[in-house]
Amino acid sequence: MSYTFSNLDPSLFSQFFTAEFIGIEVLTPAEKALIGKAALKRQNDFSTGRHCARKALGRFGASDTEILTGEVKEPLWPAGFVGSISHSKKLTGAIVAKVENIAAVGLDVETIGGINHDMWDILFTYNEQVFLSTMGDREQALYSTLVFSFKEAFYKLQYPLTKQYVDFKEVGILCTGGHFGLHADSEFNHQMIPRERLILQWDKFDSQVICVCYLPVLR
Ligand SMILES: CC(C)(COP(=O)(O)OP(=O)(O)OC[C@H]1O[C@@H](n2cnc3c(N)ncnc32)[C@H](O)[C@@H]1OP(=O)(O)O)[C@@H](O)C(=O)NCCC(=O)NCCS
Fold first, then answer.
1. Residue ranges of domains in the chain, CATH in brackets
2. What is the distance in A from the centroid of ligand 1 to the CA of 211?
3. Contact indicator for 70, 76 with CB cutoff of 8 Å
4. Which tens digit of pLDDT belongs to each residue from 12-28?
């Protein structure tokens, strides 16, 4: 089963998603060394993510690249590229772009309905909770997953630029007229991430939401 995020501009991004698990035989020795002691599920997630990343990089002619990890396990992309990896129970994917076009990108895949009400106070700002409170059960399950997933996607976007941890309540996600953005009153404020230029897009595939957050290079 394959999936493509159709809203993503193919002239800027390359993507690859799979619902299958790919074993660690696709890893280089150095990549295997990073994950060799982990549980099998984690090894499979890691190798499937690397597989997706190499497939995505392949469209830019860089499919044989090793992707090691940084200080907090963030993926280290080959020179000239930015990218992001995510895995849920049902779908794994990677999105990459050239740094001349995209300054940073974050991808997150989540299963709809995974956010219980008792997690709201940890994950969501006051405004987000008000926004979600107005919804019926089905809509709430979708939108609470989306708000959470956009925060994770944003975290993955911002980390390579700022090297900072950002807490869930430092970032506010707002949805107006079906379009998502970062709250104007969000506490997150970093000169390398101009909030007004961030683009947030999402898609739904079966029981999964796919959230992408990216920062285009200013021309
Ligand atoms: C790091 C984190 C975002 C990963 O998200 P997740 O839903 O648990 O897992 P996903 O499968 O979607 O993503 C995992 C992938 O993210 C990437 N990743 C991990 N840390 C990262 C970082 N600091 N920066 C960018 N990418 C990172 C890795 O590629 C990883 O996969 P891999 O180990 O197989 O290479 C999450 O575990 C976390 O720590 N969140 C807390 C911070 C946060 O989200 N704040 C929200 C407000 S900004």
1. 13-216 (3.90.470.20)
2. 13
3. yes
4. 999 999 999 999 999 99
Q: If 0-12 CB within 10 Å is exposed, 13-18 middle and 19+ buried, where does residue 172 land? A: buried
Q: What is the 3-state secondary structure (H, E, C) of 60-116?
A: CCCCCCCCCECCCCCECCCCCEEEEEEECCCCEEEEEEECCCEEEEEEEEEECCCCC
The residue type of 82 is V
Q: pTM of this prediction?
A: 0.97
Nearest CA residue ID for atom 48, ligand 1: 155
Query: Which residue, chain included where needed, has tokens 């499937």?
Result: 48
pLDDT tens string 89-117: 999 999 999 999 999 999 999 999 999 99
Probe target for ligand 1 pocket from 96, 115, 150, 156, with the most ligand atoms within 8 Å of CB = 156
Question: What's the CA angle centered on 152, arms 108 and 131, to 5 degrees?
Answer: 105
**Residue 98: its pLDDT value, please?**
98
Residues 6+ apart with CB under 8 A from 214: 13, 97, 102, 104, 105, 106, 157, 198, 199
Q: Which two tokens stand for residue 80?
A: 């000239």
Q: Which residue type does 13 have?
A: F
Nearest-CA residue for atom 32 of ligand 1: 46
For 20, the 3-state DSSP assignment is coil
Average pLDDT, the chain: 95
Query: Residue 46's CB: how many other CB atoms inside 10 A?
Result: 24
